[in-house]
Amino acid sequence: MRKGIDLIPASRRRYLEHAVKVLRNEFARELTRKKKTGPDGRPRRILKIILYGSMARGNPVRDYVNGYISDYDLLVIVSHEDLTDFGWWEGAGDAFLAESLDSPTRYPARFIVHDIHDVNEQIHLGRPFFKDIHRDGIILYEFSTKALAKPGNLTPEEIHGEARTHFEHWFERSCNFSRFADYGRSEEMLAETAFQFHQAVESAYHCALLTLTLYTPKLHDIERLRDMAEGIDQRLVQAWPRKHRYDR
What we know:
Blueprint: E1 2-3, H1 10-33, E2 46-52, H2 54-57, E3 62-63, E4 68-69, E5 72-78, H3 90-102, E6 109-115, H4 116-125, H5 128-136, E7 138-142, H6 156-186, H7 190-213, H8 222-232
Parallel strand pairs: 1-7, 5-6
Antiparallel strand pairs: 2-5, 2-7, 3-4
């Protein structure tokens, strides 16, 4: 894994420095309102912030036909598992959302949060999503300079087996929600229908992510799930065009 924001082109460096500042400041603000130590008595901390994905690889996408642009994908590694709860990160999420609405043509910042033990376990097990971060990621900030675990290796057969299990579960789940939605629409139960379609789409994105990477975040945010899935396979962009205001 590479270290140092100096490795990033100057045109993107300033915004990444800003994004790291937003995450750290909002986390510090939450610490003033909550307990500063975890159940083990150790201080709660952000241990590392890592840029991953197309930005880290140096091949971001800007699709003018469909209106799709890559994200600044950030992995925030924290000291305690309870810090992965979204309640700690609402301020940062709101700040990045406001920026993306103010400047829709700029690459937006998105982040996921995992505790250090989970990240090391996933890398050690050889999960493709985390192995890719270990290989391509750029460390933007770190409190602890301790290296992450060494990547393990799943066999192609193990990867295929896990992917098939995820696919069978989540694809069926998505289809079942769609069936409920179709029934609700036939009975003109519009609010319930909208909810069921939301669940169908959410399940479909979890299905795509888990099948292709063996990873999906613990989120119900369709927009974030959409961004992550489209970053893996850009054919999915066509499902939700956003070039025009009406589409968005």
